[in-house]
Amino acid sequence: MKVFIVHAHPERRSLNGALTDIAVETLTGAGHAVRVSDLYAMGWNSAVGADDFGDAVSSPLDVVHDSGRAYGTGVLSADIRAEQEKLKWADTVILQFPLWWYSMPAILKGWVDRVFTYGFGYGVGEHNETRYGDRFGDGALKGKRAMLSLTVGGPESHYSDRGINGPIDDLLYPIQHGILYHPGMEVLPPFVLYRTVRMSAEVFADAAEQWKKRLLTLEDTDPIPYRRQNDGDYEMPSLRLREGLEIPGRSGFGLHTAG
Ligand code: FAD
Known about the structure:
About 30% of the residues lie in helices and about 10% in strands. The chain has helices at about 15-30, 40, 65-75, 80-90, 105-115, 170-180, 200-215; strands at about 1-5, 35-40, 90-100, 145-150, 185, 190-195. α5 links the parallel β3 and β4 (about 145-150). Strands 1, 2, 3, 4, 5 and 6 form a six-stranded parallel sheet that branches. It is α/β, with parallel strands linked by helices. The chain has a single domain, classed as Flavodoxin domain (Rossmann fold, 3-Layer(aba) Sandwich), CATH 3.40.50. The chain has seven helices and six strands. α1 runs parallel beside α7. The site of flavin-adenine dinucleotide has 20 residues, from α1 and α7.
């Protein structure tokens, strides 16, 4: 595999840092190629701005179309092009982060905002009455696989079906479906560690073993069976799931997973 890890934690000696180190060591030890973007160490700029788009910028700024023109003409700023090149190189992408305010740290969201440009992350393919682009199963990153690896402060029960924070699958849906599946990547089930604010050495050792096992079985892991946009499950042009396709007991985000 060619694995690209995007690491988002301000302290390299953190639990998240340890998980990234384990991933690099385990994957390279198994003969895979690994590249890491350590966003805080790189001083990643997470704010979209006119400087991103070179001479493709318009006035007033039009982030959607300026980003598409800049991508198409190769004038995106060098830091964005470098990240897009790593994504093109990889067949497997891992996002490593702590759950902060029920989501990813802002620096990682800013990485997505700037790197997943029009023509690359979205705005791909024909848009008409019968087809709304190449998304959710198709797209520029089709053929790649992605996975979240995250650490969570609270215990697992808080993130279970009746847990007060809502099910973890729901919290992660905007990232897994809205960001990773949207440009065509298959999404593997996440690796989630709970109750991580304080971990004993024993709990850490157990977590490290679980993580190594996940890493060494990535190639055999089935992706989450999200429904493909362009395979007939959705009515056009509304893109509502066709009546009768829902799995009994499923609602909300769960409607968009088959099987
Ligand atoms: P660290 O603080 O680095 O470490 C955690 C524990 O692991 C420590 O006990 C440490 O000693 C141990 N450890 C670390 N590395 C090693 C190692 N190499 N060997 C042995 N032991 C090690 N939680 C929620 O549940 N929901 C939220 O919405 C949420 N929002 C947050 C928002 C903010 C802004 C912040 C700061 C925290 C939030 N949290 C939330 C808690 C957060 O998810 C956890 O603090 C985080 O996931 C822990 O990961 P870390 O890498 O920062 O851990």
